[in-house]
Amino acid sequence: MTEITLQSIKKDLQKGGFKLTPQREATVKILLENEKDHLSAEEIFMFLKRRNSDIGLATVYRTLEILTQLHVTNKVLFEDGLARYDLHRGKSTHFHHHLLCLKCGEIDEIFEDLLVDIEKDVETRYHFKIKDHRLTFHGICAKCQEEDKKKVGISLDVGNPNG
Predict the structure, then answer these.
(1) In this structure, how many other beta carbons lie within 10 angstroms of the beta carbon of residue 55?
(2) CA atoms of 47 and 26, how far apart (whole Å)
(3) Using an 8 Å Cβ cutoff, are 42 and 24 in contact?
(4) pTM
(5) Does the CA dihedral 37-145-95-112 come out positive or negative?
(6) Which of 86, 90, 135, 148 is the 20 to 30 A CA-CA neighbour of 3?
(7) ∠ Cα 100 63 61 (to 5°)
(8) Mean pLDDT of residues grouped by 10 in the chain (163 residues)?
(9) CA 23 and chain centroid, separation
(10) Would you tell me the crossing angle of helices 22-33 and 6-15 to the nearest 10 degrees?
(11) Per residue in 108-151, pLDDT tens?
């Protein structure tokens, strides 16, 4: 994985014919500070508002679209219907995979490409040239599983006069 910095993003913007304006810089800083999260444009906007920024929501959307067009960010859609953004890592030609907890909504990432063999099979069998793929596993995260175990243990003990 390649480290993403404000300087590297500035270079990507310049290569794409864009400047790192103060508004874009503020938006990028929010993404960098929250790189483990998958923030929506509205969430980024709220972070900016807390900093007394006068950036409008439309500017945040435009900045995110430029960053996505330049492959600085990835635009991801989950069940909540909001487009969420995360920073594109490394020189990988593929998007990374996600683990989405159906209970708490936590999103974890898998950077290893798990579908290489499947892609080759699809390309051969269907004569289809794959450019990218996106995979999200839906399930229950370890933290929620542990909380569920504790709740079951508590409810079993409550009804047991010897426990």
Answers:
(1) 19
(2) 10
(3) no
(4) 0.68
(5) positive
(6) 135
(7) 65
(8) 79 95 94 90 95 91 95 83 80 70 85 85 93 83 92 64 51
(9) 21
(10) 130
(11) 878 787 888 888 999 999 999 988 777 888 899 999 999 998 88
